[in-house]
Specification:
Blueprint (H helix, E strand, L loop, with lengths): L1 H6 L9 H23 L12 H30 L6 H20 L7 H26 L5 H21 L6 H32 L10 H19 L4 H22 L8 H22 L7 H28 L10 H22 L4 H28 L7 H16 L1
Helix pairs in contact: 2-3, 2-13, 3-5, 3-7, 3-11, 3-14, 4-5, 5-6, 6-7, 7-8, 7-10, 7-11, 8-9, 9-10, 10-11, 10-12, 11-12, 11-13, 12-13
């Protein structure tokens, strides 16, 4: 037993998700508190290098969201490739680059320090991360997994575009960078959701339900998403992009229908992922409806980021944390229901309330901000100790959890 315990002993750096999820959670709360203080309570900050909205969007995407993606990809690679890459120095380097980028970009808000220092660390982080994720793909010659590496490479390139825009080199650089990264993140959610959510539903319902995926839907999804991506980001053709978004809303609705079972509503670990994916459908539907109804741009955008990215990332962080700390994914702490429900309520308030009543816009924004902060603060109190401390059992329980995780990811 001592040998098993020694072999399965986790540190704060193994798996990689532990440090990245801790940092991502702290960043999520920090950025929303800071944004609420500025936007709602008019705190004076030094937005000289970029607009407040661009700074907020950039840090939530390239700070919070990318940290979650990094932790997730660097953790599941061992189940996909079968390789256990014990290079702590590479992980520490990535963490240092991420932290330095966040620190120096935050300092620009209260000092006269140039954004360029943070920009260099930020771009280096994504470049190093891309090559680090590519390594096991090349090692195992697994061409199927190159898609995720390509997504990371595009996000890294989008970050460079963003900073070139900030520097004035590319007039549309900031817009290209933010929206390109946003829709590539959405694409990652669509790709990983298509692979993993049906398996999670099947296992979570104890094989009483078999979710369905259709090959035709997979093909149409790729074609129309690529069309939407270029029309929306680089050609800025609002009409054609909105029409394509309507097609995507139908495609993803059909996919969700194939995954749906009434039994998921009794299991927060399942419905949070299903609802998060549904928010992406809502986002595309709202973009389509904007052709015919006077709907502001922000509700569709926040359907993607607050509902889709927010709920999907917290759902995956919860699941991965439980699975990698020797806990039962199928019997999460009761507080999980409240965390997900609070974030769902915040999504509804942020997306739909401004459409119905623009007269109280600032009230709805403030309410959504508080609900996000509350949900992630509860998550931090409950789950960060799990990530920081050793697993419940360093031996057979963690080994069993890893085997279950390996089986789920391998099937994906």
């Amino acid at each position: 037993m001592k040998k098993i315990n020694k072999e399965n002993r986790d540190t704060i750096f193994d798996p990689a998700m532990r440090t990245f999820f801790i940092l991502a959670t702290i960043a999520s709360i920090y950025y929303l508190v800071l944004w609420t203080a500025y936007y709602t309570f008019k705190l004076k900050l030094n937005f000289t290098s970029m607009s407040p909205l661009m700074w907020h969007a950039h840090e939530m995407l390239f700070g919070y969201t990318v940290a979650v993606i990094a932790g997730f990809l660097l953790t599941i690679e061992r189940y996909w490739s079968g390789l256990v890459i014990n290079k702590k120095s590479a992980l520490v380097s990535l963490l240092v680059l991420w932290i330095l980028a966040r620190v120096f970009l935050s300092l620009t808000l209260v000092t006269d320090i140039s954004y360029k220092i943070g920009a260099v660390f930020d771009c280096l982080f994504l470049i190093v991360l891309t090559f680090r994720v590519l390594y096991p793909v090349i090692k195992t010659r697994d061409r199927e997994k190159t898609a995720l590496t390509a997504h990371l490479a595009i996000i890294a390139a989008s970050n460079v575009l963003f900073y070139l825009g900030v520097a004035g080199v590319l007039p549309n650089g900031q817009r290209w960078g933010i929206y390109s990264a946003l829709y590539v993140v959405i694409s990652i959610i669509i790709l990983m959701g298509r692979r993993m959510i049906p398996i999670f539903i099947r296992n979570g319902l104890q094989f009483t339900f078999e979710p369905k995926n259709r090959r035709s839907i997979d093909i149409l999804s790729v074609i129309f998403f690529l069309l939407f991506y270029f029309l929306e980001v680089f050609f800025a053709n609002a009409r054609l992009a909105s029409m394509t978004a309507g097609v995507l809303a139908v495609i993803y609705s059909v996919r969700l229908y194939g995954w749906y079972s009434n039994q998921i509503w009794g299991k927060p670990m399942l419905w949070v992922l299903f609802v998060a994916y549904s928010w992406i459908v809502v986002g595309f539907a709202l973009k389509f409806l904007s052709l015919y109804v006077a709907i502001p741009q922000m509700p569709a955008l926040h359907s993607f980021v607050y509902g889709g990215i927010g709920m999907m990332t917290i759902g995956f962080m919860t699941r991965a944390t439980l699975g990698h700390t020797g806990r039962n994914v199928f019997e999460p702490p009761a507080i999980v229901l409240w965390i997900f429900s609070i974030l769902l309520l915040g999504s509804v308030v942020r997306v739909f309330f401004p459409i119905v009543d623009m007269g109280h816009y600032i009230v709805w924004i403030a309410a959504a901000q508080v609900l996000w902060i509350l949900a992630f603060s509860i998550f931090a109190v409950v789950f960060l100790p799990m990530l920081w401390n050793p697993p419940l059992d360093n031996g057979m329980e963690v080994s069993h959890a890893h085997n279950r995780m390996r089986q789920e990811v391998a099937r994906s």
